[in-house]
Amino acid sequence: MIAGADGRSLTAEAHDGGDAHVAETQGAGAMGTLGRSAGPVRNPSRPAKRLARRISHDYGRADHLNRYREVLHTAVSRDYRIGSMLDLAAMKGATPTDKWLILRHDVDVAPSIARRMLAIESDIGVTATYYFRLCTAHGADFDHITRSGADIGYHSEELATVAKAFGVTSPHEVREITPVAKELVVVNLARFAAATGRTIHHASSHGDFANSRLGVTNATLYDDELRHRTGIRFEAYDDDVNRPVTDRIADQPDAVDASQRAINALEAGGHVVYFLSHPRWWGSSRSEALIEDVNRLVDAARFARGARGRRIGPSFSVS
Ligand SMILES: [Zn+2]
Fold this sequence. Notes:
The chain has helices at residues 11-16, 19-26, 33-36, 45-59, 65-77, 85-90, 111-124, 139-147, 158-166, 174-196, 209-214, 224-230, 239-242, 255-267, 286-304, and strands at residues 81-83, 100-107, 129-132, 151-156, 202-205, 234-235, 247-250, 272-277.
C-alpha cells in the first residue's frame, strides 16, 4: 500500500485500474462485480445478468467528452501547466513551483474513445499519458495515438494473467507464480515496445478482479530487478512519483462526477491535480466493450472454478 500526498491510499485505485473498482464502489451494473464474488459464482444466471446489465450500461452511455474538454479549459484558464506522467515523475517527489494538471488515461478497452480524448488534448496543445494493455495495443486508433507524440506507457496485468492461467485463487500461492509473472512482463513489454515502435520507460498496474481476489496488485512485480531488466524507470503507483500530488481524481464510478471534482480542485487551486481517466467511461464503444465484457465473463467464470482462463477475440495477451 502506498499513500498520496493527501494521505489517501492508492491501493484501491491500483486494484481498480478499471472495472473491478467500479464494481466495489458502484455496487451494481458493472460486470466487475464478478471480481469480488468470483469465488461464489454458483448461480449460472447471475454472471449472464450482470453481463446484460453492463452491456446495457455501455450501449446507453452518454458521451461525456465535452466534460473532459471543460476540465482542460478550466486548467488553462487558471494558468495550470498540463502534462503527463513523465512531467509528474520529473518532479522527483518535490513540490513544483508551478501548478500542474497531470493527465493519465488507462486504456483498458476502447482505444477509439482514447483517440477522441487525444484530439481534445491536441486542440489545446497539451500532452497526456496513455497506458495501454496488450489487448488494446493494436489497431488504427492505437497506431494513431502512439504516433501522435503522446506519452505512452504499459498497463500491466501479468500477475492476474498468470494467476488465471494457473487457476491460482489463493493469496498464499502468489509467491509461487511471481517469478513466472515477472518473466511474462519481460516478454510482454518487448512485444508492447515493438507494437509502439518506442522504448517504454514506465508502467501502471491494471486492476483485474483476480487482483482483488488475491489481494495483490500487478505493481508488486516491479521490483528493482525487473526494472533493471526491462528499463522501466517508474511505476505509476510509486510513492516518490506520487508525493507531489495534492488532489487525486479518478473517473469512477462516474465520469461526470469526476470531471466536476477535477474542476472543483482546479478552481480551488490544488497545486498538483492528478486526473486518471478510463476512456470507456467517457463515451460509447459498443464492439470494444462487448468483446472485453465477454472476455471478463469467461475469465471470471473459469477463475471461480479455479480453472485456466483463456481470452477470446482480438487479444494480444497470452493465449
Ligand atoms: Zn486498467
